[in-house]
TrEMBL record:
Top-level lineage group: Eukaryota
Entry GO CC: extracellular region
SUPFAM superfamilies in alphabetical order: Phospholipase A2, PLA2
Pfam families: PLA2G12
UniProt-recorded name of the protein: Phospholipase A2 domain-containing protein
Single Gene Ontology MF annotation: phospholipase A2 activity
Coiled coil feature spans: none
GO biological process: one example: arachidonate secretion
Length: 68
């Protein structure tokens, strides 16, 4: 699930770059590099924040257990 969220995040950032592709090539290249860097950051460092937010958001029935 986290991987899907991360992929959606990257796609969203890349769409923003694509919408602004009429700017200077260097600026567009920088936008893509930024998007890829943000994606790498959430892939590398985002597991704990993702799990913590899922724990807070999950209602796992009568058992009260959260199964990630």
């Amino acid at each position: 699930m986290k991987e899907s969220c991360d992929d959606d995040f990257r796609s969203c950032l890349r769409r923003i770059c694509k919408r602004n592709s009429n700017v200077l090539k260097e600026a567009n290249d920088a936008c893509k590099s930024f998007a890829d860097g943000m994606y790498a950051g959430v892939m590398a460092l985002g597991c704990k924040p993702y799990r913590d937010s899922q724990k807070q958001a999950c209602d796992c029935g009568d058992s009260g257990k959260i199964d990630l």
